[in-house]
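Hello forum,

I keep getting stuck at the same step: I have a sequence, I want structure tokens, and every attempt I make locally crashes halfway through. Rather than fight my setup again tonight, could one of you with a working pipeline run this one for me? It's a single chain of 94 residues.
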Amino acid sequence: MKVPHALALHGAQVLPVLAWLLLFANWSESRRTRTMIAGTLGYSGLVAVSALQAYSGRAPLDLGPAGAVTLGISAVLVVGAYAAALSGSTNRPA
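Reply #2:
Ran it on my machine without issues. Output:
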């Protein structure tokens, strides 16, 4: 249960930083909200996959096909949300 606990705990850092970065994007509020939702869904998927791995007694990287696909999609959503937030920034934070 260490990995799901660590991921959930760090979500309290990862998601607010994403929201903060989106403040600098020169986008409409609905686009920023959709990007935040994508990042949140992706991060939730990462936590869910790691929790299911722990509950089933498997190693964190001992993934089946469904777990691997879910993990990949979730990671793409999180990284994509961060990349979009950074690329949309007009005034980059210091």
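The two ends are 36 Å apart (CA to CA). If your local run keeps crashing, start a new thread with the error log.
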